Amino acid sequence: MIRVGLVTGAARGIGRAIALRLAKDGFNVAVNDIEASSGDLQKVQQEIEQLGQRSIAIIADVSDSKSVENMMQETVEKLGSLDVLIANAGIGEVKSLLDTTVEDWDKVFAVNTRGIFLCYKEAAKIMIKQAQTAALEWAPYNITVNAYCPGLIKTSLSDKSNEVLSKIQGKSVNDIESDSLKTIPIGRVGYPEDVANLVSFLAGKDSDYITGQSILVNGGRELS
């Protein structure tokens, strides 16, 4: 039976890399992002289908409870189940503290905190229901929950952050990047695929005894 994964914030960066890696691992994949990223999201869906897997693109705001509920239901209705959720959607306001508004602050927490809560809650409802059904024929279904904690990952968001920092600190972008590299023992920035490699393992059967963990993907910049 082909397993199904759902990746939020999948139009670009880490989310895109995770979605493509899951497809390469044999998953059918639902990909999600907001309306403003619909063009890029459609491209990711097409890339997954070119890898021979089924995929659907779902436009939804993860900070809205009804949208999240509908997204989970659409995944099950169109792809048959929901086995792995990657609550990847996240945003950042790259501004100085004095330039950050209350609205900016609330928006970040709505997506990065409330969004994860809503996705976990609705996905768990579906997975538990699937487990109860499957338990009639198979052993109870175990749901594991782990978090990946990316360090300095090369994405459009990190590029934007470096541009803002260069203006605030009066340094070139190259100098900002060089300063960051000095804090990474491995000596390079991370790439979305580095995170996707970990997610591939956590989504697979070999990690079924790992749960409740926050795993750093940062080249040794911080130690756990």
From TrEMBL:
It comes from the Eukaryota. One of its GO terms (molecular function) is oxidoreductase activity, acting on the CH-OH group of donors, NAD or NADP as acceptor. Pfam families: adh_short (PF00106). Pathway: Lipid metabolism; fatty acid biosynthesis. Belongs to the short-chain dehydrogenases/reductases (SDR) family. This is Uncharacterized protein. It comes from Adineta steineri.
